[in-house]
Specification:
Blueprint: E1 2-7, E2 16-27, H1 38-56, H2 63-66, H3 69-73, H4 101-105, E3 109-121, E4 125-137, E5 144-157, E6 162-176, H5 181-187, H6 211-216, E7 218-237, E8 240-259, E9 269-292, E10 295-318, E11 334-358, E12 362-373, E13 382-393, E14 407-421, E15 432-438, E16 441-448, E17 457-470, E18 475-487, E19 490-494, E20 503-507, E21 509-526, E22 530-548, E23 555-556, E24 564-565, E25 573-577, E26 579-583, H7 587-593, E27 596-597, E28 602-603, E29 619-621, E30 636-641, E31 646-656, E32 659-669, E33 672-675, H8 676-679, H9 698-701, E34 726-728, E35 731-742, E36 753-769, E37 792-793, E38 801-811
Length: 812
């Protein structure tokens, strides 16, 4: 980073020009993917094919991509084992490629940030203007983000009573997104060479897309943003002020996608989408503020008008003549989709607030707000939201004087407030009508089911806290308890199929979050040349489903859900089968578990599932209800919570003369995570590469393996959700490290340069954790709703380390 500052001009008009620059890079460790190399893949794939063929009693769809079906048919017997088919590989089943796709298509990403600004003014005016440019390369080659922004702020006093202000900022950003390349690189068969012998890109087959082709695909976006506001402020009296503000925001995002043909006989496709959003707001505020002896009073009333608009145009096509030149939408032989729409909503608000302080120790705040939104039906549009807070600065009391050398500050505070959320779409209260054609004739039909009974989602929050300081605030911090109660929670819920729809937004019930927070900062040294602070914070939160709508008995719980929430249940919990901690040792053990069928005198067809044949190496699920078979309704239970027992951070800051050193750690203890990137592989790996954990599977090792059977097709359905796939996600991470050194100012007293400061910044340097996935903190999913909590790790992007070096120059 380089910063240059100059000052010049006349008295009362001293503009300051500043230039700053920052250069750094981002790095991802490819070892985080832990994918198999070519030799490991071929060894695993051959064994998986043999196991799959033997378990199924013949060649499956995927077996036939590797094995010679004609030779297999010549066996002409049902009494065969894996040794009889161990040499039936097709000539092109495996290749001799050893290319490192990760190294070829990724890079240490360079980031640059430059800013130029000027600020100044006089006794009656002030201004600030800046331009900013950011250039960020992506970890994957070809990905990038280019940002250019400008800002202008201006304030002027027209008289002693009237002030005018104008604030504007605008930006444009062009981005090329190649994040999907990560999945392509991870899943790419490592035995496939990048190029054919003629130097052309190896197009491979339907299942395997060469990352080099993905690199050439287009996924570009251009965005433009503007935000501006103008205000006028009038001091009616010394104790009464009126302010009126007009704000306008506008954004335009244009996305352009084109996917090339990835294999012989494949197709290409493209799409473009143009989206525009705008908001106009007009706020008016009247404020009274006065100090009257021991009384401090501030009161305000105001109103706000808001208008939102959104519109988009989308078109898509496929079957273009080529992949390089004629890629505009008009060149598509198949015009697959075209759509446009426009949405509007308005909100009107009125609010008031009173703040009162007595004797600089007793504090009172009261607020009331009324909001009306067009996103609700005409009878449900208004919401009313009061709040209040009290505080007592105990340390300012006379009776605390003897303790002030020890207890330098103490404040007790409490608050209660209600806020509202319109957590829904523009017209969810009404049913949608859309168009279609039949036999060449235009027509219309209902496309969604509205709900004109939707109400404001409201949050009632209570806070109680203590702020403290000891030994002249050398030890300082706070302790707090809170409870957030969200009522009339809006989420999509199923409706009877007789309505011709599957779901609609509804107010389903209420949830609560209760927690405690604690933080402390200790100043070990505090003098002119040396200061050293250490800090620590911790928090605990527990969410609960307080109530449902009186009709629905529980949320989730279907065969494919990983959660089930009943009234009183904890949010963020996992719900699934219980793993016995081992696999079936042999096929006879499976038969012994199957319940006896009295009508046939033989064992029933299944113990766990009827859609496949269970066998040795499959996971063994516990029969919780003891009925002799595994069912979704009877044999699942709460398996744990994604919510940590405690989370927070700690750090230290040391300043010695011109040297500053800071470290910040974050931590989480006790939460569980479902590693989908691990479990999903045991439902079948197709022909793709996989994490090297599959080498420790029953397929490769037999009894004693850590993981169950895994094949290309996925025999055994071993990806079924059990506690086997849940892991402790506790971690401690060095999140940030900052180091700077400022040369002594006295060295520059005779020079134009008045200061030099060197800086170094790094983030995400290391993580201590037993979690086996890429990242115990990132790659999570909210499962579509706050009701179900976080905790699903899709391993889409490993944590990156970033490094920045900088230099700051000040010229006066």
């Amino acid at each position: 980073m380089v910063i240059v500052t100059t000052k010049s001009g006349q008295e009362g008009m001293k503009p300051t020009i500043e230039f700053s620059g920052r250069v750094g890079w981002q790095k991802i460790d490819s070892d985080a993917f832990k994918s198999m190399n070519a030799e490991e893949y071929i060894s695993f794939s051959k064994r998986a094919n043999l196991v799959e063929a033997f378990r199924n009693g013949g060649l499956t769809y995927f077996n036939k991509k590797y094995m010679d079906a004609d030779r297999f048919n010549l066996l002409n017997t049902s009494e065969w084992d894996m040794s009889d088919i161990a040499d039936m590989w097709l000539p092109n089943a495996y290749y001799d490629g050893h290319d490192n796709y990760w190294d070829a298509m990724t890079q240490d990403a360079l980031a640059q940030d430059y800013n130029v600004s000027i600020r100044g003014g006089s006794k009656t005016t002030s201004y600030y203007a800046s331009v900013n440019f950011k250039d960020q390369d992506g970890i994957v080659k070809g990905s990038s983000s280019r940002y250019f922004g400008a800002r202008f702020n201006f304030e002027a006093k027209a008289s002693e009573q009237v002030k005018f202000g104008l604030n504007m900022d605008a930006s444009t950003r062009r981005a090329t997104n190649k994040d999907n390349m990560i999945n392509k690189i991870i899943g790419m068969r490592p035995d496939y060479p990048m190029y054919n012998e003629d130097g052309e890109i190896n197009t491979i087959d339907f299942y395997t897309k060469n990352p080099l082709i993905e690199l050439l695909d287009k996924n570009d976006s251009d965005s433009k943003n503007f935000n501006g506001n103008a205000f006028i402020e009038y001091d009616i009296f010394p104790f009464l002020k009126f302010r009126s503000t007009l704000t306008a925001t506008y954004s335009n995002i244009n996305s352009d996608l084109f996917t090339r043909r990835s294999y012989d006989g494949g197709n290409n496709s493209g799409s473009q989408r143009d989206t525009q959003n705008s908001v106009i707001m007009w706020d008016n505020l009247l404020t009274f503020y006065k100090t009257m002896g021991i009384h401090d009073l501030t009161a305000m009333i105001g109103q706000s008008l808001e208008r939102q608009s959104s519109q988009f145009l989308y078109a898509a096509g496929s079957n273009y003549p080529d992949d390089d030149i004629l890629t505009n939408l008009g060149s598509a032989a198949t015009r697959s989709s075209i759509n446009s729409n426009k949405y509007n909503s308005s909100m009107v608000s009125a609010f008031g607030r009173v703040q009162y302080k007595l004797l600089n120790r007793y504090l009172l705040t009261a607020t009331f707000r009324a909001d009306g939104s067009s996103r609700f039906g005409k009878d449900q549009r208004w919401g009313y939201f009061p709040s209040g807070a009290i505080g007592w600065i105990i340390s300012n009391e006379d009776f605390m004087s003897p303790l002030r050398n020890v207890l330098s500050y103490a404040k007790i505070r409490a608050s209660y407030g209600k806020t509202g959320s319109q957590n829904l779409g523009y017209y969810d209260y009404t049913s949608y009508i859309t168009s279609n054609s039949y036999d060449g004739q235009p027509g219309a039909y209902p496309s969604s089911l509205g709900n004109n009974l939707l109400q404001w989602e409201s949050q009632n929050q209570t806070d109680i806290g203590l702020d403290y300081g000891f030994l002249d605030d050398r030890i300082r911090g706070s302790f707090g308890w809170y409870r957030k109660y969200v009522d009339n929670l809006i989420t999509s819920r199923p409706v009877p199929t007789s309505s011709a729809f599957s779901s609609t937004n509804q107010n389903v019930g209420a949830i609560s979050n209760t927690g405690v927070e604690f933080d402390v900062t200790v100043s070990i040294f505090r003098d002119r040349d040396l200061t050293w602070d250490i800090n620590f914070n911790a928090a605990h939160n527990k969410g609960k489903l307080e109530k449902l709508n009186g009709v629905t008995k529980f949320l989730g719980g279907t065969a494919n859900d990983r959660f089930k929430l009943e009234e009183g249940g904890e949010l963020g919990t996992f719900y699934g089968y219980v793993d016995a901690g081992r696999f079936y040792e042999n096929d006879e053990e499976v038969w012994a578990l199957k319940p006896f069928d009295p009508t046939t005198g033989r064992p029933a067809n299944f113990y766990r599932a009827s859609s496949f044949t269970e066998g040795a190496g499959d996971i063994y699920i516990v029969d919780l209800d003891g009925d002799g078979k595994i069912t979704a309704d009877g044999d699942r239970k709460i398996l744990g919570s994604a919510n940590p027992k405690v989370f927070g951070g700690f750090g230290s800051t040391l300043i010695w003369k011109g040297l500053m050193f800071n470290m910040t750690f974050t931590y989480s203890l006790g939460g569980k995570r479902f590693w989908d990137g691990e479990a999903s592989k045991f439902g079948g790996v197709n022909v793709y590469n996989a994490p090297n954990l599959v080498l420790d599977s029953w397929t490769m090792k037999g009894p004693g393996a850590t993981y169950p059977i895994i094949t290309h097709y996925g025999v055994g359905q071993n990806s079924v959700f059990t506690n086997r796939w849940l892991h402790d996600a506790s971690y401690m991470r060095l999140s940030a490290l900052n180091l700077s050194y400022r040369l002594p100012q006295k060295w520059f007293s005779k020079y134009l340069i008045k200061g030099i400061e060197a800086t170094f910044q790094a983030t995400n340097l290391f993580t201590i954790t037993k979690y086996p996935g890429m990242d115990p903190q990132g790659n999570f999913s909210t499962s579509g709703s706050a009701l179900y909590g976080t905790g699903t790790d899709y391993s889409t992007y490993p944590a990156a380390k970033t490094f920045n070096f900088g230099l700051k120059l000040t010229i006066d």
